[in-house]
Structures are given as C-alpha cells and as structure tokens.
Amino acid sequence: MKTTPQNVHFPKTILVLCAMCAMAFAPLASATLIGYESFDGVSNGLLAGQATQSTIGFAGTETWTGPSGNASAQQARSFSASTSGLTFPGLVTSGGNAEAYRTTTFNDNTTTPHRAELSSSTPTTNTPDEVFFSALINADGYTAREGDTSLHGVELRFLHESGGRSLGFGFGGASGGDETAAKTLFVRGFDGNPSTSVRLESDLVLASGTNLVVLSIARPGGSGDNTYSLWLNPVPGAPQGTPDWQGTLNWGIVVDGGSQGFYGFDMTQSFNGIQSVLVDELRFGTSYDAVSPIPEPGTLVLFGVLLGTLAVFRRRPR
Hints:
The chain has helices at residues 10-24, 179-182, 288-291, 297-315; strands at residues 33-37, 45-46, 79-82, 97-102, 114-125, 130-138, 153-161, 166-172, 184-190, 197-205, 210-218, 226-232, 245-249, 260-270, 275-285.
C-alpha cells in the first residue's frame, strides 16, 4: 500500500536555501571603496620596505617607501609597523597599524617633514565630484611643547596625482601653542593654484584613545570652490549626517578626464622632540559609507538565516 510521508518540510528547506543564496550574493558594503590600507601582514620594525597586502586600489605587492620611492631614505625611517592594529566601536578593522615617531636619533631635521608613501601600480583616474578619505588616529603619545607654534604634527593624505599633489587631513602645532592646539585637526588642500599647498585649521580636537576621522572634498560639477568637510568620531554605519566642520578652498579635486584620481597614500610627520602617534585603516572612496563601513550585509543575512533555521526546527511537529 502506498503511504504518504508525514510532516514534509520541503518548502521550508527551500526558504532557507534561498536565504543562504541571498547571503552569498549580498552586495559588499565597500562597493565604492577605491583605496584601502589596513597594514595587514606587516611585521614589527621599520615600515619602509614592507609590502601592502591590499588589493583594493593596489596590486598587493607595492611597498612603503620614502620620497620618490627611496625606501632607505632618512625621511622614511620615522615610521614603524606593528602587528596589533587600532580598533573603533562598530568599525570593520583588520591587520596592524603604523606608528609615526620621532626619537633623538631622527631629530636631525625638524623643519623638513619626514614622509612615507605607498604608491599604487594600478591607479584609478577620473575623480568624481566628491571623494571621501578616512583613518584611525591615536594621538595619546603626542604632547605639545610649551609655546610650540611651529606647526609640527602628522598628516595623512591620499595621492591625487601621479608623483604630484596629495590631499588629506592632519593635526599638529597651531597658533595656540598648547595641548589643545596641538591636537586640533586641519585639512590639507590648495589655494590660488594647484602648486600652493595650504593647511586650513578646523575647531575639532582629537579625543584621547582612538579617533575615527572622515574627510570629504566636494567640487560639484567639477568647477568652483572645493568644500572640505570633517566628521570626528561618527558612528560607523549611521546615515551621513551634518559635518562637524566645513571649510572652503578654491582648489582640491579636479575633474579633467585623466590626470587626477587615486594613486596611493602618504603620511608625513614633523615632531619637535620624542613623540609617537598611531595610525591605521586608511580608506579612500566615493561615498561616506565606503570609508566608515560596518559588517558586510552578508554577515547580517547569515545571522538572520541562523535565526530563521532555529525557528523552523523549533516549530517542526514531532
């Protein structure tokens, strides 16, 4: 006699499989991320000469060097690498970090900023009307010298032209010459023409611990002044809110069909004395979400699948 199977759960199985497929094909949160350096895979020691493992904006084999690609230059030796990276609540992080430091050994030339750069062998050209750049910074090891108004500090920037201009943000000595002034953020841009680099001071001060700094540079329609916007310690994954600070320069990103784009990252520092600043998670992209990412949608879907599976089996007739 032919019997009919009892408690068939085929439709529910299909439902679970569909959810798993949705997880597999969920779009990445970093879809508009153009350049990324997490210092993943670095070993303790000098950063110069160590290769990136990032394949976002890079081939994965480029090395950190000093100015003009010189890895052994004195100017490149004020940056070290660590295998333990910085973290920020809710932000996706990976790998190690870089330390900008200045000891008495490298205190020979405080007027010339020391520089390390990571140039991409696979640059992205044609900058959109707005770009975003972010980084993690811990400046607890940086202290101001009384009355120091020499504009020392650290700058984190993205290379905007091949062998040419770089734009970004930093912090350092300011007109106040005190601890608050020393940890006040500024942006680096151009004013008057693309050869005149200037720093535009904000009123934002780095907090103790790890800070997330997000910079936007917008030039709507490819013409007119550039608007520089800063967010300090925003909540990752939250909608893009009103900037904590805005300023204007008449030069920055340019849309001219070729020479501008993403060519890598650079870091400069000019300390007066023994200092230490930790930096991590350099990101460059075309959206706010790309440079302050939360876990990818696939992770959230997976969590939902697990909950759904538990519910299915909990209700299954026995």
